[in-house]
Q: What sequence folds into this?
């Protein structure tokens, strides 16, 4: 097993390199960039999401003196809207963002820095990328962790009961509810919850913004916990809808496959009760695929599933940060998020495989590879 883990860890290196290389090459050909954004700000044409970011572009404030004169040369002509700006100023912008160096040199420097988890500073925020990610991390962890736990806590018992009562009225009605829940997009359900329960048109039971109320730090510890979960009710409910439906059907189908196998019939013929057969024999085999998928489900909710929910409920997490960074061409934040997400994704895939062997020791990936 140690040899298998070592091989998987070593394979992560070329995988990460490939992901970063492809993304870096795409960025080189993508229109726009930080230099173009500064130029657009100077021309008063910046209408992107950067308008929501305060304190952006440290060198822009002194750029007014560069707007009037100068003849555009090859460096300034590469950028849309740069005509009429001082070429020296354009070169200073390129140096500020590192674009005065060849692409291959910038790429290898980025890899060396990222190998040491040195992600530099954001282009348009006066803060290091690592600090920025740490600042947004609690929101994403809260959404991902509690959504995954809630969906599993509901879907596993419900899926087992649906499998035991396959074809019954209970199974048919709950299947209809599950399918409807799966078909409704989470963001639409979030809007419905706001209209009904957050002061939209009916009741104002739950708050609409943030993870905590004003004065949270002054509350007793038990009130802080209650306030925290009070703010999470609506976004977690909206996010759990689709995941809960998927996990329920997965659990049901997994149990149905196991219940129909020969060893279950043998256990019943030995006189074991239905409960002993279900939880003593079927449960471990049926739950293998469900439990082993927990790390991946958490990472999926943690990184990818919360962008719209964060926006709707004004929660400033990693999903919103990644989106705004892409729109604003804040490349250090974009590549840092990509690197961290990819690395964690690969590690979670390894953890998922190891979870299979922990749940069922009969599985041996090392023997399979041999």
A:
């Amino acid at each position: 097993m140690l040899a298998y883990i070592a091989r998987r860890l070593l394979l992560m290196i070329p995988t990460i390199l490939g992901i970063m290389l492809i993304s870096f090459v795409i960025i080189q050909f993508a229109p726009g960039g930080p230099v173009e954004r500064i130029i657009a700000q100077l021309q008063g044409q910046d209408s992107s999401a950067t308008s929501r970011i305060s304190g952006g572009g440290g060198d822009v404030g002194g750029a007014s003196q560069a707007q009037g004169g100068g003849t555009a040369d090859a460096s300034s002509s590469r950028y849309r809207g740069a005509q009429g700006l001082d070429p020296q100023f354009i070169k200073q912008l390129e140096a500020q963002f590192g674009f005065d160096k060849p692409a291959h040199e910038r790429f290898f420097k980025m890899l060396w820095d990222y190998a040491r988890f040195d992600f530099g500073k954001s282009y348009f925020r006066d803060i290091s990328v690592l600090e920025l990610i740490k600042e947004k991390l609690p929101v994403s962890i809260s959404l991902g962790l509690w959504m995954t736990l809630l969906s599993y806590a509901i879907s596993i018992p419900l899926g087992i009961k649906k499998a035991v009562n396959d074809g019954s009225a209970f199974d048919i009605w709950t299947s209809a509810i599950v399918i409807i829940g799966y078909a409704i997009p989470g963001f639409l359900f979030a809007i419905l919850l706001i209209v009904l329960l957050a002061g939209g048109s009916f009741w104002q039971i739950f708050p609409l913004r943030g993870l905590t109320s004003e004065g949270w730090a002054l509350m007793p510890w038990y009130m802080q916990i209650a306030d925290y979960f009070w703010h999470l009710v609506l976004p977690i409910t909206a996010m759990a809808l689709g995941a809960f439906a998927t996990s329920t059907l997965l659990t049901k189908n997994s149990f149905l496959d196991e219940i129909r196998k020969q060893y279950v019939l043998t256990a019943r013929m030995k006189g074991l009760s239905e409960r002993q057969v279900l939880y003593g024999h079927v449960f471990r085999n049926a739950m293998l695929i469900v439990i082993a998928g927990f790390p991946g489900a958490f990472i999926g909710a943690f990184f990818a599933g919360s962008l719209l929910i964060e926006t709707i409920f004004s929660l400033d997490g990693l999903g919103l940060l990644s989106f705004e960074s892409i729109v604003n061409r804040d490349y250090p934040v974009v590549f840092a998020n990509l690197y961290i997400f990819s690395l964690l994704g690969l590690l979670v895939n390894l953890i998922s495989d190891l979870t299979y062997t922990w749940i069922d020791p009969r599985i041996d990936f090392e023997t399979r590879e041999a």
Remarks:
- Confidence is low (pLDDT under 50) at residues 50-72.
